[in-house]
Amino acid sequence: MNKNLHKLFVISSPSGGGKTSLLKAFFEDEKAKNLIMSISYTTRKKREGDEEGKDYFFVSRDEFKIKEKNNDFLESANVFGNFYGTDKNFIFSKLKFSDVILELDWQGAESIKKIFKESILISLIPPSYQDLENRLRGRALDTDKTITKRLSESKIEVSKCLTFDFLILNDDFEKALLDLKDIIFKKLNPKEFKSRVTDDLLKNLLD
Q: HSE (CB half, 13 Å, CA atoms) of 43?
């Protein structure tokens, strides 16, 4: 990363892992007022409560493909049939004066790391797949078929995130939020962070 730019943090988790809720609470902290949350482009349909230009920039598939063809994205991915992309100009312009936080899947996180070597990758790890399933069913946004697919992909997501800089256990919302604040506000080195993700937990998730 250019030394003139600020820090870039990338938050990832399996679908239903709680990253959106955690980031919403994070940005309610007064200390986060000078940080920027990146806004992705997506072809997925708006959900109830979604705001254009705040949650996402909602575009058609044709519009997305044009931006992709024009090389406007730092990274883009097809996630469960919907396309998502991170706008290059948005990221570079914001990093000139502020730290920036990205919310991406593991593929997007890896793509960003290749471009911004000093970016910080953070993964939220669920305490169990039953916990993930409960979250997915509780938000009532997906069909049973989609939930099954998301759960099957979650093991891949967890395995790919093992090389991330920080692993946050999202078993307790307040503890996970505190961990996230410590990492970002204190600019912790990974060696300084005491993760609550144990080897036994990871073994159970990956078996």
A: 19
